[in-house]
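The records we work with from here on pair a chain with its fold. These numbers are not coordinates but entries in a learned vocabulary of local backbone shapes. To see the layout at work, look at the sequence and tokens printed below.
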Amino acid sequence: MTAVVGNTSMVTPETGAAAKPVVALNRRTVDTVLVGLGAVFAVVLGIAAGLLTWGSNFSNDYVRKELSSQEISFPSAAALTEEGRTDLVKFADQKMVNGKQAEGYASFINGHLAKIGGGKTYATIGADETAAKAAVKAATDAGKPAADIAKLQATADGITNTRNTLFKGETLRGLLLSAFAWSTIGRIAGIASIAAYIAAAVMLLLVLLGLFHIRRLAHAHKAAAA
């Protein structure tokens, strides 16, 4: 056996080994440390909630300002229905000012681009444009009749115009989808800020309860000592 006296370990004949000193932690010290950590965590959560709120407001305000400046409005319900876009009727005649509307209008543009390019994009129709211009050059170099060259040139110009239209449409569609993405990020940040505020409030409540518990224990010890 090993007996411990104060901070000194005694070696017993049975084991021949020294016992380790016993470290006792004061209950009030543990409670104080836990309450302090909780207070720090509550402050961190509060700061995070504030930053998330700021980010959400900034994102939403920025998207609204940029979209409003474009002065883009949806067609009427009748026009959308005629085009088979009943999914966008809920936005009929509305001015585009938010992310969901931007996503809807990007889909509207994409439907038109598919009809204009026959399913081809600005990138994929580039080969057709190059081939058409090469045909014009070959006909000119070969001394073909002017009427044939003019016909080939008209075809090349038509493909070029289509490609330019696809470029503009795809660019606008990409910008609108970017606005939708930022709007979504802002919405997520807003939800996260609410969760952080709730967590900070709960943690603050626990800290207050911890302080009350420490104070009650102190009074109990004083009463016992008396």
